[in-house]
Amino acid sequence: MKTKLTQKIFEPLIEKKLDESKQGLAYEDNTNPNSSIKKAYIETYGCQMNFSDTEIIASVLKDLGYSFTTNVLESDLALINTCSIRENAEEKVWHKLKELKGIKKKNPGLLVGVLGCMAERLKSKLLEQEQLVDLVVGPDAYRDLPRLIESAESGMKSINVLLSREETYADISPIRLNTNGVSAFISIMRGCNNMCTFCIVPFTRGRERSRDYHSIVKEAQELYHNGYREVTLLGQNVDSYHYEDCNFAQLLEKVALISPDLRVRFSTSHPKDITDEVLYTIKKYENICKYIHLPAQSGNSAILEKMNRGYTREWYMQKIERIRQILPDCAISTDIIVGFCGETEEQFQDTVSLMQWAKFDYAYMFFYSERPGTPAAKKFKDDIPEEEKKRRLQKIIAIQNQNSYNSNLRDLNQTFKILIEGNSKKSDLDFCGRNDQNKMVIFRKKPGLKPGDYVNVKVHQVTSATLIGEII
Ligand code: SAH
Ligand code: SF4
Ligand code: F3S
């Protein structure tokens, strides 16, 4: 899920990635027989996996008899599902907690919980600081919410931040929140074993484990039968998915076979692990979207080594070439970090030249933010001044802006199959939906069409962010 981009062509393309976005819970449920009892408010920060976790949390709360509200003022329980990926992600949560402190003064019965990655990173420190948090729940402890809430209700601060080697919540049926009824996320694995030196995720999410593929396929089938037409399979490194005899390519195939009308997307691929088998599976099925998010992080081999990414610049370039050879129409996006420990101007220029060479269709770009306890924080000095980090970031944003615009220009006068997602943000007269390559396309509505339908749209105008066209 992406936040809207600026429409002007050469405005800096700073798209907020999900891990810095947040959203309240737009879900009200009056069908629950116990719904008059208690109301929960949940706000989610962070990556798609965190949003997917919120749907698990909502399911656990629903079983407890909770109904949901988007208005924190009328809630009995306010849960913040948090992200630790960069310092500013945590700052936003602190800001929110201060806001809740004010609300709690007026409504002392309100229980406030911090869930997710910040809960895991800061543990009981969250209970000590601010004196406002009543429960702290790590990403593997959501089944324990009933006990933790009960204990918090009796006035005890409660905490469970145990990480698990097995938990995948496979049997919990997520409650789809903020849904457009067309596309949904499915978590296929949890945790990460990679230990990229800059990254907090292995510490907040624990060891990698794959979810039973039977439950993944069943969930996708149910979504399809409920009218959904797109599923995104989520994991920090989907290419290392492995459950019994099923690898990621085989899982993709199983999900693609549910129906040719069900689009299959996935994220995130890792350059060191993505295989030809995966690429050929994508090629084989029309409904597996031709779009790969392949984070490079840097274009310099020495920095990549320091980041412990497990590949070199050349390896990464070969992977891009391989993708383009097997899947000529495949869109490729990336993540880039500038200003990592000790990054020289020459090393930064290698990232610049990689971006110029690869011509990514899209990129999420960040400057390095040191995370306490990570290998980089222990081993290296965060020695690039913030102004310099920002200068480097602006430089690559400008390059990517041009790349995105050029990529969209190539789509002019082309016709794409679009899955209608809903009204365009700007006008109820227009629909929006994505093409195979994950580009957002805006077009005038026609009678009889609804979200979840496929249409062919010819593009007649582009910006660096969007394609504009008409149904043909
Ligand atoms: N599993 C994915 C990424 C998850 S985090 C992968 O391996 O690519 C999403 C992105 O946040 C990362 O790709 C990286 O670009 C960025 N990121 C992670 N830690 C960061 C840090 N300490 N400072 C700045 N950006 C960071
Ligand atoms: Fe973090 Fe690396 Fe794992 Fe991605 S692969 S979550 S960047 S440790
Ligand atoms: Fe953030 Fe945790 Fe996701 S740190 S990016 S919410 S895995």
Description:
- This protein has 472 residues and is α/β, with parallel strands linked by helices.
- The protein has helices at residues 48-63, 87-106, 117-122, 125-128, 145-153, 201-205, 213-225, 248-256, 276-284, 301-306, 313-326, 345-358, 375-379, 386-409; strands spanning 22-23, 38-45, 66-68, 77-82, 111-116, 135-137, 158-160, 183-187, 189-190, 209-210, 230-234, 242-243, 246-247, 263-267, 291-293, 331-338, 362-367, 415-423, 430-434, 440-444, 454-462, 467-471.
- The strands form six sheets. Strands 1, 2, 3, 4, 5, 6 and 7 form a seven-stranded mixed sheet that branches.
- A hairpin with a 6-residue loop joins strand 18 and strand 19.
- Helix 12 (345-358) runs parallel beside helix 14 (386-409).
- The two termini are 27 Å apart.
- Iron/sulfur cluster binds at residues 192, 194-196, 199, 201-202, 236-237, 270.
Mind telling me the CATH class of the largest domain? Answer: Alpha Beta
Domain module count = 3
Distance between the termini: 27 Å
What is the count of DSSP helices, taking H or I runs of 4+ residues? Answer: 14
Question: Quick one: biggest sheet?
Answer: 7 strands, mixed
Computed CA radius of gyration, to the nearest angstrom? 22 Å
CATH topology of the largest domain: pyruvate-formate lyase- activating enzyme
Bound compounds, each kind once, are: S-adenosyl-L-homocysteine, iron/sulfur cluster, FE3-S4 cluster
User: Helix content range of the residues, please?
Assistant: 25-40%
Which stretches of 5+ consecutive residues score pLDDT under 50?
Answer: 1-21
Structural class: alpha/beta
Total beta strands: 22
Shape: globular
